[in-house]
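Posting for a labmate who doesn't have an account.
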Amino acid sequence: MLKRDIVIVGGGPAGCAAAVAAFDAGTKDILIIERDEGLGGILRQCIHNGFGLHRFGEELTGPEYADRYKNMVIERNIDYMVKTMVLSIEDGKDGAKVVTAMNSENGVFAVEAKAVILCMGCRERSRGQLNIPGDRPAGIYTAGTAQRFINIKGEMPGKNVVILGSGDIGLIMARRMTLEGANVKVVCELMPYSGGLNRNIVQCLNDFNIPLKLSHTIAKIHGKDRVEGVTIAKVDERLRVIPEESEYVECDTILLSCGLIPENELTKSAGIALDNVTKGAVVNQDRETEKDGVYACGNVLHVHDLVDYVSEESDIAGKAAAKYVQNGCKDQETVKTLNVEKMGAVRYTVPQRIDVHENQEDVKVYFRVGAVLKDVSLVVRDGDNELMRIKKRKVAPGEMETVKIKGSVLASAERISVSVE
């Protein structure tokens, strides 16, 4: 059986950043296991710019950002396997974790690790999960699949396009399809607000005169062998279709951009508790799950709006895993555990709990809201005692919010809550 100090499942932006952080923190015996043919993850097909402004202070394309981290991994001689699928993560002897994987060269094999970092990323919701009425013709793709066809394979999925969902990938693909000569007729969004970044609405739709219809959905797909058209309809406040307010739109292609789901089959099979909202693991400020020595970061933990935040979070997980390995066991200096309560419009927080130690460092809490709100305040409280209030002109579900709580405050806190008021 192979033995490593840290095994990282996933070689995308989260996995590479976590590996680099762990290595730089003093733990060198690391193995990255990636199921795709190379490191870099989804960024390899994201050829648009807008990456790296926070992380590197310059605007990069997805492949450029991925290459930065791939090169960091190679410079440090960190081991990695590609075209390798992790099958399970189980408890071994003396607190070790046994990672079972397989590939065409080695067959099924096991790696014993002192710590594991989960970085499997996320996947798109498919048509089967959306229950759209109609036949099953060709021409229906997730936005990410269409992106891979165009940017990696050099093939056009179609010419006359309707996009369902206004997530960032869908918005970016509206522009990309237009630039490649397609006619993007409309982007329909079920909710009364867009799920993407405002800059993508402006740069990808408004700049190309592509209409965005909020509170609209595809009520039916028409066509037998190939998509021939769709019926789009307005929905009421309970998200039910209003038949009287519908229209037929002729098209040969449908792109689905209806949300991302963390790839947590491995997490669940390992017996790790998941958050009902994020669908990722429940973690503390070090991104450690409820299972000692198992960490999670990036989109497998919660879906991020910016890859820069993925790298930032992966730094935390990598450094914590390195410390865990070096200490040989779980840190016993924990003074208390504080659950981070979400209040009002706050849908979720990461971390969900804070394990307070002696000489506690500051903790950054990431969260998202459930609706578009204007002229609000982000408020952190210890019970009824207000610790901080930050005014914001606007918050939206598509954009991550953060607050930083001082370690000195946490040392004496009894009950932490985050709210939007």
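Reply:
Got it, the structure tokens are right above this. The chain is about 20% helix and 40% strand.
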